[in-house]
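Q: What residues go here?
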């Protein structure tokens, strides 16, 4: 995270590529939730969030295994 905050994206990917790849998706989700709260006065549930979380967890496990094998 330190390397990413200092603008060294390649170094940050070397440390943890999975986190760097998920940050834009998390930012989009956060902005969408904030927009919903400001526009309609309440937070709206994200459609089909549970399958998305399962996919992220599965991808994290696969990434961890492949990174440790390499």
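A:
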């Amino acid at each position: 995270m330190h390397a990413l905050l200092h603008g060294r994206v390649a170094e940050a990917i070397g440390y943890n590529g999975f986190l760097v790849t998920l940050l834009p998706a998390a930012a989009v989700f956060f902005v969408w939730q904030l927009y919903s709260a400001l526009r309609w006065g309440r937070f709206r549930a994200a459609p089909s969030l549970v399958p998305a979380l399962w996919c992220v967890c599965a991808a994290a496990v696969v990434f961890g295994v492949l990174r440790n094998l390499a």
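A: Context that may help when evaluating the design: Residues 2-69 form one domain. DSSP finds three helices and no strands in the chain.
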